[in-house]
Specification:
The structure is a single chain. By secondary structure, the protein is an alpha+beta fold. 36% of the residues lie in helices and 20% in strands. The chain is built from six helices and six strands, in the order βααββαααβββα. α2 packs across α5.
C-alpha cells in the first residue's frame, strides 16, 4: 500500500469531549455519559461490581436554562443526603482497597484508582502531607466514589478511547467548607 494513503481499515478513535463551562460535578459527568447514549441499567449493572452498601442510581430528564439534560443522582439508602454520615469520608488507602477488591475490569480499576491518586496528590501538596494521609471529605464520600468510578466505567462502556476537555472555569470569591472559609478556586482545586 502507498504510505501516503491513510489506512481506512483502522478503527476510528472515539473521543469524549467535556466542556465544563461551569465546573464538573460527578452527577453532571454521569448525566452527560447517560445522555450520550449509555443506558442507566448498564451503568447500574457495572457499578454493582463495587463492594458498597446499597444505594440507588437514578436518571431523570431535566432542563436548566431551557436546555434539556439528563440528571443522574446517587442516593445512599436510609439517608436524606449522601454526606449525612461522617464515617463515609474515606482516605486514599480505603478507596483504593475498595476499588481493588471490586469485580470491575482491570483497566477500570486502574483508571479509577489513578483519579483518586491524583486527587490525593493535589490535596497532599496543599496540606503538606503524603497522599495516603489525606482525609477526603466530599470526594471520599460513598456517593462521590460512585460518581468517579461511574464516570470511568461509563466512558469505557460507551467505547470512548480518549477524553478531552476545555478549560475548567473555577470561579472567584469564597466558599465555606470543612476547612473553614477558602478562596475560590480552592487551593486543592487549583492544584
Amino acid at each position: 500500500e502507498d504510505d501516503r494513503i491513510p489506512n481506512t481499515r483502522e478503527k476510528a478513535l472515539k473521543i469524549g469531549y467535556f466542556d465544563p463551562f461551569s465546573g464538573a460535578s460527578g452527577d453532571m459527568m454521569l448525566g452527560a455519559i447517560v445522555d450520550a447514549g449509555l443506558p442507566i441499567k448498564a451503568l447500574r449493572d457495572e457499578l454493582r461490581k463495587l463492594p458498597l452498601e446499597e444505594y440507588t442510581l437514578t436518571a431523570t430528564e431535566t432542563q436548566r436554562g431551557g436546555i434539556a439534560a439528563t440528571k443522574v443522582n446517587v442516593k445512599l439508602k436510609g439517608r436524606k443526603h449522601a454526606h449525612d454520615d461522617d464515617h463515609d469520608h474515606n482516605n486514599l488507602p480505603q478507596i483504593l482497597h475498595l476499588i481493588e477488591h471490586s469485580d470491575l475490569p482491570g483497566d477500570d480499576k486502574a483508571q479509577a484508582s489513578a483519579v483518586f491518586q491524583r486527587l490525593a496528590e493535589a490535596e497532599g501538596r496543599v496540606h503538606g502531607c503524603p497522599p495516603e494521609k489525606i482525609h477526603f471529605h466530599e470526594v471520599g464520600a460513598l456517593d462521590a466514589i460512585v460518581d468517579v468510578v461511574g464516570a470511568v466505567v461509563g466512558l469505557h462502556l460507551l467505547g470512548v478511547d480518549q477524553v478531552w476537555a476545555s478549560a475548567v472555569h473555577v470561579g472567584t470569591g469564597f466558599v465555606d467548607c470543612q476547612h473553614g472559609r477558602l478562596p475560590l478556586p480552592a487551593p486543592a482545586t487549583m492544584e
